[in-house]
Amino acid sequence: MSNLSNNKDLLILKNISHIYDQESQKIKVLNNINIKVLKGEMISLIGPSGTGKSTLLNIAGLLEKPSFGSISLSGYDCTKLSEDNKTILRGTEIGFIFQSHRLFQEFSAFENVMLPQLIMGKSKIEAEKKSKELLSALGLKNRLEFRPAKLSGGEAQRVAIARALSNSPNLILADEPTGNLDAISAKNVFELLYKLVKSLNISCIFATHNRDLAELMDRKLVLKNGFVYDE
Ligand SMILES: Nc1ncnc2c1ncn2[C@@H]1O[C@H](COP(=O)(O)OP(=O)(O)OP(=O)(O)O)[C@@H](O)[C@H]1O
Ligand SMILES: [Mg+2]
Fold it and tell me: Fewer CB under 10 Å: which end of the chain, C or N?
């Protein structure tokens, strides 16, 4: 894998279009989208339901291949990478957070944060140290041994944030991570994530229907009718 550049654009989406081929129907979701995400930037992604926010995050996260266009992440031209190298880049560079926490129910909070690190080949001692650091930073020092079912919604989402950060990614892709939370927990989870993004100098795209939260981010992107606008 060759790294092309070292500038301050962490993610560059260039001329991205996406068409879903659903049986005989073609659904054009994204129409020539261009987005640059700077290092250290937290961007909100808003827009009506069904406009393609999740699709865009899946494309940026190398989970879905766009119909057209190119993606550069941390200087790597992702269009040219093999599936294996994409998986490695995803594991090291990107952390995902979803609307539901998607934690493993049979594992504790601590184990849920440990697992992705062990999968990426970190030593147990190193992974333990990182898991404790992250869970403490997210106010969960007293919840390490709790299983997800014993956590509140906000606590479970904070564990999901710790897990997303566990392999020290440069990019966090969050798809309505506060969508299932009440207004107070949503703000609390958002503020903790924002603080971590800033202190770690990483980047985050945060899709949300919550306009109040969107206003608090560095930049607001609106996706509508296949196009993206800065608002
Ligand atoms: N795998 C798929 N196959 C076919 N069509 C799809 C697929 N995934 C999404 N779509 C369609 O693409 C459009 C965009 O969906 P997407 O989930 O990206 O929207 P969204 O902005 O995230 O919506 P929401 O705010 O409700 O989460 C929708 O019309 C949806 O039906
Ligand atoms: Mg969505």
Answer: C
